[in-house]
Structures are given as C-alpha cells and as structure tokens.
Amino acid sequence: MKRTRGFTLLEVVVALAILGLALMAIFDLNAGAVSNHVYTKRLTVASLLARSKMTDLEQDLYDDGFKLDDEEKSGDFSDEGWTQFKWRARIIAPKTDGVTPDQLIGAIFNLPIGDTSGGDPLGGLAGLFGGSGGKDGASSGGPQAAGLGGMGGAAMGMAQPMFTQMVEQITQTVREVHLTVYWQEGTQVESIDLVTHVVSLGPGSDRNGGAAATQGGGSDNQWVTQDGRPVANPIPGPNGIMLDPETRQPLRRLSDAQQELGGRRGNIGANPLGGQRNQ
After folding, report:
1. Could you say which of 167, 200, 233 is where a domain stops?
2. Rounded Cα–Cα distance for residues 53 and 184 (Å)
3. Is 179 exposed, middle or buried (0-12, 13-18, 19+ CB in 10 A)?
4. Which of 55-59, 83-87, 105-109 has the least mean pLDDT?
5. What number of other Cβ atoms are within 10 A of residue 253's Cβ?
6. Whole-prediction pTM
7. How far apart are CA 29 and CA 32, in angstroms?
8. Element (H, E) at 224
9. What would the pLDDT profile of 228-251 be if each residue is shown by its tens digit?
C-alpha cells in the first residue's frame, strides 16, 4: 500500500510566514486608508468652519467698524458642535507711517519709481509729471526742460494732498484679517490659515464698501471735517454730534458741506444791486 506524502513542518512554517506578511501588508493599507479618510474629513470640517468664522469676522467689522490698532481674537467651535477645533484671528491695520507718495504709487501700480536717496521723497513723483527728479534739483535740456520742470513741480504740489488723503483713507478703511483654525491630530497640531482684506467706509457699511441701505446711504451718512476731509469711522459725541476719532473735533455731514459749497457758487457773479449785468 502506497502512502501519500504530506507537508513537512518547515513547509508549513514558511507558508504561515508568507500568509502573515501578506495579511500585515493588507492591514497596513486598510489602516492608512482609514487614517487618510479621517484626516480628510477633519480637514474638510476645518475648511468649512474657517470659512464660516471668516464670514462672521467680516460681518463684525462691517457692523462695528474698524479700530485704530491691531486686534486679536480667539475661541473655539463648541457652539457648532466641534469642540476639538479652535481658532485665532489677527486684524491688522495698515502701517502707513512714513509712507511717501512715491512708495504708494509704486505699491499700487507695481512701478520702480521714487528715489529718496537724495533726501526728496517726492523726487520720483516729480519725474512722473515732467520734473527734474535729480538730486541737485537741476534740469538739463535748456529752457524747454526748465519749463517742463516748473509745470511738473506745480502738478506735484497739487497731487501731494491727494496722495496724503489716499494714505489716510487706506489706513481708516482697509484691514487685513489673518485667521487660523487648528486642531489636535494625534501627537501633532494641524492647522489651516486664511488671509483676506476687508474694505469698509464705516460702521454699518455693506460688503461692497458702500453705506448700508438701512441707514439711508448717500451723503447723509458720510461725515467730513470742517475743511472737507472725509472721516471713515466717526465716533458719537455729546448732543448728537459726531467726532473725528483722531482729533476729537466735531464733524459735519457731507450733504451739508455740498449744499454750502453750492450756495457759495450760486452767489458768484451776482449783481449786488439786483439788476442784470451788461453783456
């Protein structure tokens, strides 16, 4: 009678070792897939929470207006049911101290203009209007160049207040918001960062940068100083007047200033005796 030969002990051990390695590889792949799924889910939740929180921060800025200095806020999302997620935000005001008109033009239009090495912060701006722009203030090219330089200097003098007002407007109406949402992922801390810029003309303005319709809009909601400079974020004062937050001087409505200016223009050229002037 012929006997059937079976597997030896060594063959069984080798087969079990191969099977164990294969099962370990499959388990590792499944564990990695589950871990990636959990991480992706948390990343998606963090993105949605960050988007919602950024919207809330923007709305608070539109409703309450801007503060003069930087702000820092923090909290969590326990009200939304995600206690493991936390957030912190920085609201940064533009740093415009010492910004020259040349630097402002270069930043807005991305132009390499302006040379302050000669001590003249308006040298590049004068060059745009045909001025000399030289360190010694001299122009080359004879009388024609000198005339252009004079015209450029006059235009530069007219443009300087406009750029100064532009710098003030940027300081008062623009804020940069940095938002970070972070959570614990095992032994590491994961986070996502969002950055946006908010433009607001004052408390109650809308997302388009205009005054809110509920407050009447138009020039009745805009305030200017006595010399006509607009103020973005006025503060209430005594007896119902509005004050400049920097100088604490009383303000007046833009509509009143426009009516006063229109009245002055209407009186120009009128005959004091009431008759018509001879043509």
Report:
1. 200
2. 19
3. buried
4. 105-109
5. 16
6. 0.52
7. 5
8. strand 223-224
9. 788 877 877 776 678 888 888 888
Evaluate whether residue 274 is within a structural domain: no
Structural domain of 145: 10-200
Res. 94 pLDDT band, cuts 50 70 90: confident
Query: For residue 178, what are the β-bridge partners?
Result: 90, 195
Dist CA 157 CA 146 (whole Å): 17
- Look up residue 261 and give its two tokens: 């200016």
Residue 239 CB-half CA count within 13 A:
2
Asked if 221 and 184 sit in the same domain, the reply is no
My answer on whether 104 and 157 are in the same domain is yes
Q: Which residues sit opposite 90 in a β-bridge?
A: 72, 178
- Listing DSSP states for 157-215 in one string gives HHHHHHHHHHHHHHHHHEEEEEEEEEEEETTEEEEEEEEEEEE-SSTT--TTSSPPGGG
Does residue 1 fall inside a structural domain? Answer: no
Look at residues 270, 93, 89, 262 and name the one whose alpha carbon lies nearest to residue 191: 89
| 87 occurs within a structural domain | yes
Please count the structural domains in the chain.
2
**Residue 273 maps to a domain:** no
